[in-house]
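> forwarded from #structure-qc
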């Protein structure tokens, strides 16, 4: 019991330190490189939980106590380099924290509302729950209270119950065990489709901002959708689907046709994700340059006629770039003023990532 309490206290301390330094973890990518399945490893200073330690008795001499004589050649001053410091060194350790715990901290820091999935009644999943009772089962699942009640009922019905000496001894046929009961529960499915402009004006820093933001968006959405799927599209003048590693490392050049990414995203949704069954979250990141006004009009039509009526929310993040005009965000603001089906966010640098995540996830859709 004491060990479990210490573990819980330790976890609470870890979560508190992550919460205190949360912006640092969001903006420097320290967590992403240490992700392992549903956990991440966080380097932080060594943490000691206070506890009693027994020292030697003062009136006894034992091994290692009292005055000793140094062997010849030992304990002599050396000729080391540098000057000794007066402070203890900082020892770093790696501690694990689950993705769910990270999502919980993210939600607390940004005051994010819970997501209300759509389409949850369309798909039913069978789940096993220990919600039934049975007269047989393993001893680890025996329920004392139900067993006692069954024995008490037997005593009363047979007339052997004595209120002045209420001794109840269950026999084998009184035993009750928890049993698995299969239940049908609604199950929701969700996919995030990331699109990113990789033309020459989107540099390494802009892509790193997108990588960090995508990690935290995924962390929050996975809390609400187990088995979340992700797809990745890159584009300059043409678009193609790639894996996650390629998405964040590809460097391209040339012009930008944003509609190429929107058309490919539309094809992926129509082929693999029926909108009546899936919760769909397209995210597009760009520096706001587009090749022509005609292509921008094509994008606006795709948003009006396909994306906004069918997806949970369409999110566009404009990453600040000294080479980008930023015009695309202005066009979206003008065309879709106050339409809550479209979320727009301007990301001026790493220190604005948390604000942008709040923009994207703060609607709870």
């Amino acid at each position: 019991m004491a060990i479990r309490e210490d573990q819980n206290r330790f976890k609470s301390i870890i979560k508190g330190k992550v919460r205190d330094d949360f912006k640092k973890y969001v903006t420097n990518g320290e967590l992403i490189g240490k992700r392992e399945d549903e956990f991440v490893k966080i380097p932080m200073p060594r943490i000691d939980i206070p506890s009693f330690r027994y020292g030697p008795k003062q009136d006894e001499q034992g091994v290692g106590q009292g005055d000793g004589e140094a062997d010849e050649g030992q304990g002599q001053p050396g000729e080391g380099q540098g000057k000794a410091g007066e402070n203890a060194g900082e020892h770093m350790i790696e501690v694990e924290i689950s993705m769910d715990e990270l999502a919980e901290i993210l939600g607390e820091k940004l005051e994010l509302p819970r997501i209300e999935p759509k389409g949850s009644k369309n798909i039913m999943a069978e789940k096993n729950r220990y919600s039934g009772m049975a007269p047989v089962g393993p001893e680890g699942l025996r329920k004392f209270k139900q067993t006692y009640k069954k024995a008490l009922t037997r005593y009363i019905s047979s007339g052997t119950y004595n209120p002045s000496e209420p001794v109840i001894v269950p026999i084998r046929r009184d035993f009750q065990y928890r049993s698995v009961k299969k239940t049908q529960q609604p199950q929701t499915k969700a996919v995030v489709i990331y699109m990113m402009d990789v033309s020459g004006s989107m540099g390494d820093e802009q892509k790193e901002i997108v990588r960090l933001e995508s990690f935290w968006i995924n962390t929050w959405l996975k809390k609400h959708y187990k088995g979340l799927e992700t797809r990745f599209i890159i584009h300059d003048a043409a678009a193609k689907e790639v894996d996650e590693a390629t998405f964040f490392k590809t460097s391209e050049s040339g012009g930008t046709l944003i509609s190429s990414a929107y058309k490919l995203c539309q094809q992926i949704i129509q082929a693999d994700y029926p909108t009546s069954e899936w919760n769909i979250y397209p995210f597009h990141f760009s520096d706001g340059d587009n090749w022509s006004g005609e292509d921008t009009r094509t994008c606006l039509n795709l948003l009006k006629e396909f994306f906004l009526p069918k997806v949970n929310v369409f999110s566009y993040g404009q990453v600040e770039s000294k080479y980008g005009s930023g015009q695309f965000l202005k066009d979206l603001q003008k065309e879709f003023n106050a339409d809550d089906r479209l979320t727009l966010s301007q990301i001026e640098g790493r220190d604005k990532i948390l604000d942008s995540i709040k923009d994207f996830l703060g609607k709870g859709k």
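QC bot note: The longest strand covers residues 124-134. Residues 1-48+92-111 form one domain.
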